[in-house]
Amino acid sequence: MLAASYWSLLAPSIEAAAESGYGYCSGSTAIADLPKDSCIAASGTWNEYSWFPAAVGLITGALALSLTDRYLPSDLVSAVMAPTASPVRMATRSSSKRPKGPDAQSQRRILLLVIAITLHNFPEGLAVGVAFGGIDGQSMTFEKACAIAWGIGLQNFPEGLAVSMPLRGQGMSLWKSFVWGQLSGAVEPLAGILGAVLVQVARPVLPYALAFAAGAMIFVVLEDLIPEAHKDPGSRAACSSGVFIGFVTMMAMDVGLG
């Protein structure tokens, strides 16, 4: 998730912002409002701030997941994570309080993970849609758009497992775990259609959306997943090794597959 947050979300966010012309031209008054290429051609200085959408989206995404973690109703957690629970028992729980006990905390943590991965999939679908909607035969060709879709599609396999396996570990049935894994990625084709149809509207929003999803995923990793994995002193070395192996694997997929 950390690797995907950078190579699939933050780096494309900065690239998308740069392509959208985030920056300003400095020099004489006559060239102050020129776009990047014209500014450089007129011997002006182009000042990049393509980092700005990534910074805003990253902080906003982390803040959104923090608020979700704080105010997520316990009834919703129980309904999603324990769908076979008795309605009478669920009705006795207060929706204003966080669930108690290690099982409830694990359920809450997994649900936040599902939310983060779902948020992560939306801007990826948007990026695919913008790529196909922006085909012009020059800067974006059909082959490039297909390569983007292929790379994002392949990395969805481990992301789906990251949703389904913890749910299965919590006692959810095999079928329901599979369905939740599929639903977390179902937003991607919907976002792709939206991006292709509204390419001119979606393109400026894309850098912020990508970074927002990165902030949400990084928050879940730092706040819940890593601390939980290191609770058992005897397994810390294995957990740390798993983090690096997973990071390198996702890095290779994200970079190697486009």
In short:
The chain has 258 residues and is mainly α. It contains 10 helices and 2 strands, in the order H-E-H-E-H-H-H-H-H-H-H-H. The protein is globular and about 60 Å long.
Query: What is the count of β-strands?
Result: 2
- State which percent range the strand residues make up: under 5%
* Side-by-side strand order of the widest sheet: 1-2
Category by helix and strand content: mainly alpha
Sum up the overall morphology in one term.
globular
Topology as H/E string? HEHEHHHHHHHH
Helix content: over 70%
Structural Rg:
21 Å
**Kindly, what is the distance between the CA atoms of the first and last residues, rounded to a whole number of angstroms?**
17 Å
Largest sheet, in brief, is:
2 strands, antiparallel
